[in-house]
């Protein structure tokens, strides 16, 4: 940022000091650049600008602006050269470097690192190798072998004659290295493995060093590198997970049951129905305002396949303040969803989704038809193959310990810090475990208000919530309790409830919720009540019944189906595979430019010429206006823009032929009209009417007409496109490929609605 600011200021200073140049060149001007002859652009008279615009070619303009830039940079280049020389002579660079190193060394010492250079941590503790610092060689960190390996608890032996180093950990894992050799042997279970390292153990100043990464990984440690602090972090993940899970035995039993339930539910096909309702009541002096939003769902399915119908009920009313402050929606948009519905069919294994209804168009403002099935293709997904970490400890390591971004902490410290709220809320001390035969019941309670007050100074939960020690900001009551019942390791019942009371700024408020769930039934109720404001309520319920009936995953035979990609313009409609690749591309390009309308093509893609022309017109006029920053044109101006584009399109010159295997070659003589337009547009922009509105639009149109009269064809160029097979069995091009041909090969730099 400082450099850019310096450039800008230097350029202004340079320009302000220059005098306006005369249009005629002084004696000896043949040795001067055009910039030296004419001076800064902003000092030219309009006559000079007009004359240069008419007489100069592109090479002269390039010479002018390049010499202008070079002249503007001269003072800044001189400044940097002088400053660098001064800094080197007076030692500023060295001083800055020394200062930074001192600050870094001090920070390392404050963090507990024993060395000002490279350090090594193990499970959150920095290792001291008896005063012998680690060293770097060819991008690898080497550590003194004996203090390092013994610090891991290994029995170490060293044969000086052969340079053989052997280490054996208490659990039996062993490792053997040789000084000067890149070969390492280590045990993996009962097998002996051989590894070729890219660094060899070596002897320096009487100390024997080994590459820390290879040694640590062979001994089962996780290794990460912090480049800023020059620190190698070693983590015994098994020990970390064991420490976490040792405090979460009850939570882990429940977690395992939930995983089992997840897998079981994927295999069950059930008839399902559910409702969700969100309502608000705002208190008034004479009457209360109310508003509701609801969803209902019914259908049939399992974890992979399903057919469901979703319906919306919306009467916003009192929801308006919540909508206005918390979402991008407005009341009218929400009210427009009332009575809308969507029918959904899916097969995740096949990656197919079909939907029909008027809900999608109301949600995103699209023009998707409400009475036609819309198809989309997704990446196939087998949910049964999705695996979760076996324990909560493993889950937290995966979430927090593998990011590679630890700031001033080690991976071990990061995980333990992030795990602290989980341990406080779900630790074994929170549970009462009762066993009766195959049934195990877990009762859980937590007084969060007391917990927040105790941990307010450094507890992540209190920090995240923004609470302080002020009684008005900390809830006076935050009680949570729950119960989970397992039978044979499977979930039988789950319940939870909570109460929160807060008196902030003299406005008492309370929040309560209650949840009851079994594998096939769920109810949830929640309420936020303000004594003088109103009430917000949430209700949800769902119920499932296993059935032998299979869900429908494709629309009924004979019902119309349209591709989402085609409807939204992401790709062209496909044609039968035997239609012919060259025939298809030729017809698509001809339709793109309105040069011809192949009846077989229109029939194959199910399109009407008039509708296609109208859509092409809307898109191309919009792309033209966007490119030249024009306002939305009225009917008369839109007609002029479209007439200009049609005139340009009529001059396009291309040929198409099959190249085999679904490849089509397109040869074109590029028409340089838009290259010319843009070149002149940027040169003459200051002289054009930029007041906006219709005058600005007509200035751009006149420029395009002038350049079209002078436009020329370039040498022939050739490219190839590959037809793709779509999910409906047809073949075709996506919209990107067609627009790429349009704006790079046939009409270079042309406005394209793809962009």
UniProtKB/TrEMBL annotation:
Region (Disordered): 540-559
InterPro entries with a match to the protein in the record: Cu_amine_oxidase-like_N (IPR012854), Mao_N_sf (IPR036582)
Record carries keyword Amino-acid biosynthesis: no
The entry's keywords: Signal
Annotated Pfam families: Cu_amine_oxidN1 (PF07833)
Ranges of residues in domain Copper amine oxidase-like N-terminal: 122-233
Entry superkingdom: Bacteria
Comp. bias intervals (Basic and acidic residues): 540-549
Signal peptide: 1-23
Family matches, as SUPFAM superfamilies: Copper amine oxidase, domain N
Protein name: Copper amine oxidase N-terminal domain-containing protein
Gene3D superfamilies: Copper amine oxidase-like, N-terminal domain
Species in which this protein is naturally found: Flavonifractor hominis
Residues in coiled coil: none
């Amino acid at each position: 940022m400082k450099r850019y600011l310096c450039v800008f200021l230097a350029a202004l200073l340079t320009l302000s000091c220059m005098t306006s140049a005369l249009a005629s060149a002084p004696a000896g001007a043949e040795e001067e650049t055009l910039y030296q002859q004419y001076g800064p652009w902003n000092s030219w008279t309009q006559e000079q600008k007009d004359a240069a615009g008419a007489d100069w070619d592109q090479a002269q303009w390039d010479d002018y602006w390049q010499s202008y830039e070079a002249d503007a940079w001269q003072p800044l280049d001189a400044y940097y050269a002088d400053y660098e020389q001064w800094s080197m002579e007076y030692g500023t660079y060295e001083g800055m470097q020394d200062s930074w190193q001192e600050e870094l060394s001090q920070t390392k010492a404050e963090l507990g690192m024993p060395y000002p250079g490279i350090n090594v941590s193990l499970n959150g503790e920095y290792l001291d190798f008896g005063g012998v610092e680690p060293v770097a060689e060819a991008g690898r960190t080497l550590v003194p072998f004996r203090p390092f390996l013994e610090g891991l608890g290994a029995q170490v032996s060293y044969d000086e004659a052969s340079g053989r180093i052997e280490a054996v950990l208490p659990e039996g894992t062993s490792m053997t290295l040789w000084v000067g050799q890149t070969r390492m042997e280590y045990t993996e279970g009962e097998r002996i493995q051989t590894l070729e390292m890219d660094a060899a153990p070596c002897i320096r100043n009487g100390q024997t060093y080994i590459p820390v990464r290879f040694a640590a990984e062979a001994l089962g440690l996780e290794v990460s590198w912090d480049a800023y602090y020059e620190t190698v972090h070693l983590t015994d993940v098994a020990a970390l997970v064991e420490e976490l899970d040792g405090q979460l035995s009850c939570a882990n039993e429940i977690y395992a049951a939930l995983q089992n339930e997840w897998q079981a539910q994927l295999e069950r096909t059930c008839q399902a129905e559910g409702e969700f309702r969100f309502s608000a009541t705002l208190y008034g002096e004479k009457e209360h305002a109310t508003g509701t939003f609801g969803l209902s769902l019914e259908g049939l399915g399992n974890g992979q396949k399903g057919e469901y119908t979703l319906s919306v009920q919306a009467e916003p009313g009192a929801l308006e303040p919540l909508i206005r402050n918390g979402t991008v929606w407005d009341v009218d948009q929400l009210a427009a969803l009332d009575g809308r519905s969507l029918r959904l069919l899916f097969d995740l294994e096949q990656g197919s989704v079909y939907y029909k209804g008027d809900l999608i168009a109301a949600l995103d403002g699209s023009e998707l038809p409400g009475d036609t099935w819309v198809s989309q293709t997704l990446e196939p997904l087998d949910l049964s193959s999705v695996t979760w970490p076996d324990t909560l400890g493993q889950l937290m390591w995966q979430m927090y310990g593998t990011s590679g971004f630890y700031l001033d902490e080690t991976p071990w410290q990061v995980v333990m810090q992030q795990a602290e709220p989980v341990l406080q809320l779900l630790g074994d001390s929170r549970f009462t475990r009762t066993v009766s035969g195959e049934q195990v019941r877990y009762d859980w309670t937590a007084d969060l208000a007391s917990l927040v007050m105790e941990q307010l100074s450094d507890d992540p939960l209190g920090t995240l919530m923004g609470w302080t020690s002020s009684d008005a900001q900390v809830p006076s009551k935050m009680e949570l309790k729950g119960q989970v019942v397992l039978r044979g390791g499977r979930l039988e019942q789950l319940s939870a409830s909570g109460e929160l009371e807060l008196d902030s700024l003299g406005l008492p408020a309370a929040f309560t919720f209650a949840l009851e769930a079994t594998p096939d039934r769920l109810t949830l109720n929640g309420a936020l009540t303000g004594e003088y404001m109103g009430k917000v309520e949430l209700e949800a319920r769902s119920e499932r019944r296993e059935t032998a009936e299979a869900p429908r995953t494709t629309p009924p035979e004979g019902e119309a189906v349209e591709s989402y990609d085609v409807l939204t313009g992401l790709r062209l409609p496909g044609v039968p595979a035997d239609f012919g690749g060259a025939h298809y591309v030729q017809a698509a390009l001809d339709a793109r430019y309105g040069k011809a309308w192949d009846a077989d093509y229109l029939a194959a893609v199910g399109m009407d010429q008039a509708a296609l022309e109208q859509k092409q017109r809307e898109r191309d006029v919009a792309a033209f206006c966007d490119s030249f920053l024009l306002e939305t044109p009225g009917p008369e101006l839109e007609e002029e823009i479209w007439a200009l584009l049609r005139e340009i399109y009529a001059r396009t010159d291309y040929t198409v032929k099959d190249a085999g295997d679904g490849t089509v070659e397109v040869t074109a003589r590029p028409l340089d009209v838009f290259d010319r337009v843009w070149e002149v547009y940027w040169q003459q922009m200051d002289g054009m009417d930029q007041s906006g509105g219709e005058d600005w639009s007509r200035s751009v149109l006149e420029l395009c007409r002038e350049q079209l009269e002078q436009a020329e064809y370039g040498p022939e160029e050739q490219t190839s496109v590959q037809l793709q097979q779509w999910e409906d069995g047809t073949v075709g091009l996506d919209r990107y490929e067609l627009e790429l041909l349009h704006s790079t090969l046939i009409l270079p730099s042309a406005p394209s609605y793809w962009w």
